[in-house]
Amino acid sequence: MLDDGVYASVTEIGDAENISRSYVSRILRLALIAPDLVEAILAGSMEQVMMLEKLERPLPANWGEQRAMIVPCGRPIGCATPRTGAFNAAARRG
User: Fold this and answer.
1) pTM for the whole thing?
2) Which long-range contacts (CB under 8 A, 24 or more apart) does 60-63 make?
3) Which of 33, 77, 82, 84 is buried deepest, with most CB atoms within 10 A?
4) How many domains does the chain have?
């Protein structure tokens, strides 16, 4: 909506959709998440409670910095399984 010029600001979007400017801003931030992080979240490869806490905070625009912040183990995405919390084989190596 902003990219297409339909609305000029988050305030205009909020007014048009009858939601708060704060909520619009929080949702818009999610559009900037690295694609591989989005895929891991949707596939259930990331612990949901942990992800929610991290996504509620401001995220860096740089995808590499996002990965470092969201996947602190420094390993491929999904280092902990959502059900067991155990590290996967890729995270145990090296």
Assistant:
1) 0.60
2) 61/32, 63/34, 63/37
3) 77
4) 2
